[in-house]
Design goal:
alpha/beta, TIM Barrel, seven-stranded parallel beta sheet, 6 helices, 7 strands, 34% helix, globular
Length: 183
């Protein structure tokens, strides 16, 4: 039995062939999947898939790379997390990989959004899905300040050294190695 703990089967290219995607999963002994939300605008498609398929679950959150989207409040996330198929808060976190002309100081909006998600995880008792890329020190600092280890969760998209993994594990987080480790 395998569980896909982080997929985006609501994305274009997958959603339009969802029955085949789910059949392929079944053929490979993937029994359950967590379809992860990246913004509130597309959350209805995530919730729709989770509602239609018994073995698909959902998260609610806004990815750190998504700028021009509806900003969630703690109350928004808590309310959305009441859906019976929502099992986690996220995808959230910090991503400084593509700063371009900006500086880390310009990323305060990401840090505040991350805090909102952690507070929603506390309020709901649901674990966090944390995306961190080129931002490990700020990510771990905020996790410590906001006591993210109390709900716990998974460090998704993890490409950091072992010392960073150890600090996340000490805060009650699992480590997920995604396809990004291939490049």
């Amino acid at each position: 039995m395998f569980v896909d703990s982080h997929c985006h089967i609501n994305f274009e290219g997958l959603a339009d062939r969802l029955p085949q995607v789910l059949e392929n999963m079944r053929e490979q002994s993937v029994t359950h999947a967590l379809c992860v939300s990246v913004d509130l605008e597309t959350l209805p498609s995530v919730l729709d898939i989770a509602s239609r398929y018994e073995n698909v679950y959902a998260s609610v959150g806004v990815h750190p790379d998504h700028e021009d989207v509806q900003e969630p409040s703690v109350a928004d996330l808590v309310e959305l997390a009441k859906h019976p198929k929502v099992v986690a808060i996220g995808e959230t976190g910090l991503d400084y990989f593509r700063l371009g002309e900006r500086t880390i100081d310009d990323m305060e909006w990401q840090r505040e959004r991350f805090r909102v998600h952690i507070r929603a995880a506390h309020a709901t008792g649901k674990p966090l899905i944390v995306h961190t890329r080129a931002a490990s020190e700020d990510t771990l600092r905020i996790m410590e300040e906001e006591r993210a280890g109390e709900p716990g969760g998974v460090m998704h998209c993890f490409t950091e050294p072992w010392a960073i993994a150890e600090r996340a594990i000490a805060q009650n987080f699992f480590i997920s190695l995604s396809g990004i480790v291939t490049f």
